[in-house]
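User: Quick one: structure for sequence A, then sequence B.

Assistant: Sequence A:
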Amino acid sequence: MDLRLLLIATLSAVLGGSWAQQEGSECIKANAQSCGECIQVAETCGWCAAEFLTEGQSKSARCDDLESLKKRNCAVTTIENPRGSVNINKNKPVTNRNKDVAEKLKPEQITQIQPQKLTLTLRSGEPQTFELKFKRAEDYPIDLYYLMDLSFSMKDDLENVKNLGTDLMREMQEITSDFRIGFGSFVEKTVMPYISTTPARLINPCTGNQNCTSPFSYKNVLNLTDKGDEFNRLVSQQQISGNLDSPEGGFDAIMQVAVCENQIGWRNVTRLLVFSTDAGFHFAGDGKLGGIVLPNDGRCHLENNMYTMSHYYDYPSIAHLVQKLSDHNIQTIFAVTEEFQPVYKELKNLIPKSAVGTLSSNSSNVIKLIIDAYNSLSSEVILENGRLPDGVSMNYKSICKNGVEGTGDNGRKCSNISIGDEVSFKISIESKKCPSHGKAEIIKIKPLGFTEEVEVVLNFICNCQCAAKGKPNSEMCHEGNGTFECGSCKCNDGRIGRLCECSKDEVRTEDLDANCRKDNGTDICSNTGDCVCGTCECKKREIPTEIYTGKYCECDNFNCDRSNNKLCGGHGRCDCRKCVCDANYTGSACDCSLETATCLAKNGQICNGRGTCDCGSCKCTNPKFQGPTCEICPTCPGVCAEHKDCVQCRGFEAGEKKDTCQDECNYFQLIKVKDRDKLPQPTDQSFPLTHCKERDANDCWFYYTYAIRNETKEVYVVETLECPAGPDIIPIVAGVVAGIVLIGLALLLIWKLLMIIHDRREFAKFEKEKMNAKWDTVRNPIYKSPINQFQNPSYGNKGASL
């Protein structure tokens, strides 16, 4: 059982060590043939450009982790290990702006994000981190476009919107001094089944006496302007229209508002789109009902401020809208009635930087709704980035107000930001590989809903600096068949080998293979390598520290004897399957130490003088002794008992060895002391000391110490014996008698006490019964008086008595 446990423990240790070492084998496993290939494997990989390879090693062995290269005696100055960097190219500070200042800044002069341009140099596997700062500027310009559903159900809403321009201008003055407003309307696609296409209905789609305008898809009524009264005038001229189905064509209108920047008049400022309706929406695929199958192209099709391609292109999809709204930095506010709140809240979750407000039945609360939604949108900043190149990833970490940190998806945004608050984002960009074209890439990072953006230029480290010094068709490579760079030959196409000495077509021939057989044997490269161009290139192991070497790959550094589960006992190195031991070690597994320090006993002797020191451990000459220094003897008496008779005969001329004392007991030096206080104490000595207390045949005690100092055995003995005194009879007898008398008196007193207690209890009982007795004064019915009365019958008749 013990053997099995030991075997399991050994295998676990070996396998555990193997796995631990395999973690660092990524560089070796890559089999990189050049410095450029090596540094793309991982950031921990380096390329040794010096001549340090041993016979049989391929040039891919130059690629290894940095620590391994150093251990393999590659000079630090010859290790190619380029690192990435971050350079800030444009770093204009964020703007501190106040709307009360007379001098106003143009929108392009305001900076809310810093820095504005960076250049990152990326090495595969090495992330580069930089920090972005965002500060919400005060009095930032706002463009607001009001897009309204003019289907018949919105008739009363139109009346309340007619004065929206001036009223909203007045309210927005509290937020910004630079505000512009525009207006547009929508109904539905002008084909069946969305509207009625009868001539009369095309002129007036409403029923009864209602006067409605012809149906249309989307109309840009007013470009963005700072004239609120102009907004009121044009909106007052608008008429309600009508359609057949309940969902409206609002998505067509949103798409045109987003992409027709010039026609709408959008500036590079905060862009708000208010979408007001009391119905649902059509989206991509619904156009098939009207025979429209072409997907929306996402382009501007406004002619005379009217959308002219509604009958030709399908409704846009939600994802298409999200893309266009984001590309044009438009934040959407959905002002919808209570009935459709759930639908538009779900839509809000799909469109970043959007908000939903509850519109009253007649739109009377539209101004409050817009201001509340704007405050909600502007208090949150969300970063987004453009398409990343293949193999590049980004991670965000936000440091928001009051030091609140966010990671993952929350790392892109900060909420509850007030005007003047500054937040920051730490962004890490990492590349897993070099792009195939090898050119720089540009990505853009911007806060959603803002026109400002950060340009990040990505340069990729795809080769080592030493490669620039390479010599094409170098003489160092066989007949100039390669470029000598970074200490090795980079072969031309069609050539292979350490020095590019072979053509790929000539790799396997009998003549070349013969050069790879040791002693004309059958094994090519000892079955641990490949024959390349007549030269053995040894195979690589999973564990990078284990290597095959030699002309025929016949050597290795891991198949040597082991001790304590360690190669060469941990006291040597494995060289061609033989242990080369460190100093003071010997043996086939370097497991035999030549040091004697481990054999020294406490008394300074090697193995207590009872054995020899062999390979750092004691070999006891007498089998009855055991222990690391032969100090244990299970069958031997103790030190005190062992030397008792000799100490007694030499110190007191008594004991069993009295007659043979001179012959058997002269092995120690005896020193007599007057009392026990004069005996040596353990704390006073630098050598082992034993205190003994023994008794002789007369029951007398004698005290001594035994010690070995400088190979001399010393015994200190107290010269007087401690004998016990005889017993004093009189005190003993007197004590016994006194004890018996005292015990008798005590017993009498106890008996007397118990009798008194008993009598008192009986008397108390009698008194109690006496008190409880009640004597009856009535005549006892069974009582017979002892007196009998008789009356003389003749008494009273005296005559008769005679």
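Sequence B:
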Amino acid sequence: MHSTSLSLFHLSSLLLPLFTFHATSAPVTDDFSTYIVHLDPSSRPEHFTTHQQWHSSIVCDVKSSTSSSHHHFSSLENSFLYSYQNALHGFSAVLSQQELQTLENIPGFLSYYKDKLVTMDTTYTPEFMSLNPSTGLWPDSKFGEDVIIGVIDTGIWPESPSFSDHEMMYTSKLPSKWKGTCQEGQDFNSSLCNSKLIGARYFNKGVKAANPNVTLTMNSARDTQGHGTHTSSTAAGNYVDGASFFGYADGVARGMAPRARVAMYKVIWDEGRYASDVLAGMDQAVADGVDIISISMGFDGVPLYEDPVAIASFGAMDKGILVSSSAGNAGPKGGPLHNGIPWVLTVAAGNFDRTYAASLILGNNKEKEQHVIVGRSMFPLNAWVKDETLIYNKTLSKCDSLKLLSEAPRGIIVCDDTGFPNDQMDVIDSATNLAGVIFVSKDPSRFDLESMSCPGVLISTTELDTVIDYIKSSDNPTSTIKFQQTVTGKEVAPSVADYTSRGPSPNCPAVLKPDVLAPGSHVLASWIPNGYTATVGTNTLLSSEGFHLISGTSMACPHASGVAALLRGAHREWSHAAIRSAMMTTANELDSSMMAIKDVGLNFTAASPLAMGAGHMVPNKAMDPGLVYDVARQDYVSLLCSMNFTRNQIMTITRSNVYDCSNSSLDLNYPSFVAFYDKNVTTGAMLKHRFRRVVTNVGAAAATYEVKVVAPEGVKVAVWPKSLVFEKKNEQRDYNVEIVYPSDGKGRVLYGSIVWVEESGKHAVRSSIVVAPTSAGK
């Protein structure tokens, strides 16, 4: 495309309108709602050969015994939705209150809860994380070959080149463990699956039950929103040359595990997003034989025994499947994270060192000297604003009056730093005579410019001084703005994104969450054709390149899912907990300037583990962590036993009435430590917390580790023994930690670390320590 000089308001012929469906979450009827019911599988009568027969029989019997026989939902066909048999045990059905009361008296009943809405949480990132095609985790894992990632999301666009099986068709047959299928549906036939996209299913009974007369926009696994296509290609997309977003971030796109297999489970619909469908998708993924489940969504404000992700992921963990999940987008102070589940990997979102830019050229070719300022921009057209008059005066510079802006002469207007450049853009979009705009911020990196609807550039206040000096010194100040530029390696990175939700986990604060930080801002990945991507003025640009740049913990999660797939490929013998531990203990707490990673949402102060977990993932180090903190099923059960849950609540999660609570403990063998205090207790009162940890040697046959403690401010940390000696691989050693800390009346979060350093210096196994008020995250 050739560069063009443009005005904001002569683009309507290039653009198409966008129509958005707004889903409702109305109940099924006033008397009936969808419920998820959990059962004890050991209570199934012998005359039923399958759990599904038993589940459907229960619903049939309950309906026949109540007085709603003439209602639409009185028949089994209309009311029975799903039978869950793999990741959990139970069913979902449309039931009345009277039917629920009857249901509570049947043998094997454990619990029920009403269906609920799920919250959705988007090329260069492999290089940013130092993945190298010649050495390290990529080649050692064969780029994730034959590892199956099950993605729970909005569906997939199978024709995207990211899901081509180029160079995969002849390398290996489908894994023998794979039991999935390519489910046909609207505009989706089985031939669309291949050696890369090996499975696709869709689950819509929950959304249909909530909206009985609904007609689904796309009744198949095909994606209509873009989210699922984006996340799955981030985790495991194949190599695609020439990928970009309207010229930004151009290069070769590929997922973190480019040779892994993808299976899509569509559970999110334009018409709604319901727990019953999410559970069905996760349940089927476990049955199909996936190795990793990637789920970029979660449920807010629910206990573990009513959290569909927590319940289904426990069943997945039982089958050796690692579940990778997003922490949520409610940061920095909008609310605590979700998916703070002890047996899953919880991923926070960070920024990385790629920025999208425009060059602001002061002066024209006739002048002896031209000054170039590189500012931030995401204006989506390949265009120049060329040799336009620079306008700066105090009457216009607030850029908050549509009347004044519309009366201004044509040119490039300079806006003052008001702290709200996005609000200024909204006003300028409706103005009619501006060739371009210069926005100003004390700290441009704070603003997440996923798009820029006007031909503008964002510069710093220091750079504004240069612009003003030029305007004052010139009789005819002019400027040119050149868009679609990408800059890498210039910014200090990573940093914690302001939107990422913070810990501690509201439903299990004893386990420090999130776990790790991964790239989540301005991530380039595949998108649906003709899907909304950007605006220019008041018009909408549709995606024609098949890629999009978006942000969120939804985008961070599949990065971690892909790395987990690589580790699974390199270490088939590792448990889910060993993989998670390797990712955590090798994560980096320092940025590219070798300073503490900063938190954008907290004025660039040092980020605490409540924001970034152990730190930013370092995949190559995770391949060889030295020591791992493993966790067995019984360890999780012992944790649940200590949380004051009832027997039925524990069984809802564990799916078994055979469990041991004799050693109940909140002290899970996790690669981190967290202690809480009540800030209302007398300041200076000393508190004490003890922990025990067991580490497994997965490094060399013989090794000795010495402990190094970085104690939080004002906190005493004792570790014994101070050295761990291993004589062989897979040998275990335990150690103890005592933290003595004051009750801080200021409610500060204090943090430090315990590092086990191998004598050779090859391994440094780091675990975070956090001392926080009980009110943290609330």
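Confidence is low (pLDDT under 50) at residues 1-27. Residues 553-570 form the longest helix (18 residues).

User: Thanks, that's what I needed.
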